[in-house]
Automatic annotation (TrEMBL):
The lineage of its organism: Eukaryota, Fungi, Dikarya, Ascomycota, Pezizomycotina. InterPro entries: Class_I_gatase-like, ThiJ-like. It comes from Capronia epimyces CBS 606.96. This is DJ-1/PfpI domain-containing protein. SUPFAM superfamilies: Class I glutamine amidotransferase-like. It comes from the Eukaryota. Gene3D superfamilies: 3.40.50.880.
Length: 230
């Protein structure tokens, strides 16, 4: 049987590139890809990243838009997702749980969801190696994990190395666009803490947060007895 991955998503607001390119990679690798939103509505990614002047100047590139077009029109599981708020829904059968990024305020639906936190709190310990299960998250997706608590009241990320959207990138694009877009690039509004700072408050040591000053993407993968992939 092929490995199974599920995307946990809000109804609206995720980054189209950070959703569609991973879907494309998983599809090409032979994964069985499923999606889940709160009540089973087909998710819609941030329209500002796809169309208009924002989509042209600030949004997804050609490859990202093409991948999102394919995802939204050809994937039956994307068009008819599962409902993570359903009491019968479980992550137990999945080999990988994926949390895409997105800064649009709609993603607060999943970042703040007690139900999603409950599901991840149960699944996250199962990713310790030699288990074949993993969790992966991009950008703001890591904040969902940061806000997920263990039974001891600590974040599931408390003892692991992780990464997310660097604060200098978030603050930089916010200040560069605030005259035209207001607080669009601040998921919780102007003046609120950056994703990086929120996550650092949940870690045992701020040094566990890996960052880079380079503009190119980077990945943190943890290997060892406490393995989690972020």
């Amino acid at each position: 049987m092929p490995p199974k991955v599920i995307f946990l998503m809000a109804d609206y607001g995720h980054d189209p590139t950070e959703t569609a390119i991973p879907w494309q990679v998983f599809q090409n690798a032979g994964f069985e890809v499923s999606f889940a939103t709160e009540k089973g509505a087909s998710p819609q990614c941030d329209e500002k990243m796809l169309s208009g002047w924002t989509g042209t100047l600030l949004g997804a590139n050609k490859a990202g838009k093409k991948a999102y077009g394919a995802l939204s029109t050809t994937s039956p599981n994307f068009q008819n997702p599962l409902a993570w708020n359903d009491t019968s829904f479980s992550l137990a059968d999945y080999d990988l749980v994926f949390l895409p990024g997105g800064h649009e305020k709609g993603v607060r639906q999943i970042i703040d969801s007690p139900r999603v936190h409950e599901l991840l709190a149960s699944y996250f310990p199962e990713t310790k190696k030699p288990s074949r299960k993993s969790v992966a998250a991009i950008c703001h997706g890591v904040q969902v994990l940061a806000m997920t608590s263990t039974g001891e009241g600590k974040s599931v990320l408390h003892d692991v190395k992780t990464t997310a959207l660097p604060a200098f990138m978030e603050q930089g694009i916010f200040h560069a666009t605030k005259l035209f877009l207001g607080d669009y690039y601040k998921t919780y509004g102007a003046g609120t803490a950056s994703v990086e700072n929120v996550i650092k408050t949940k870690l045992a040591d701020k040094a566990q947060f890996a960052s880079s000053l380079k503009p190119s993407p980077y990945v943190v993968t943890i290997e060892g007895p406490k393995t989690q992939q972020i």
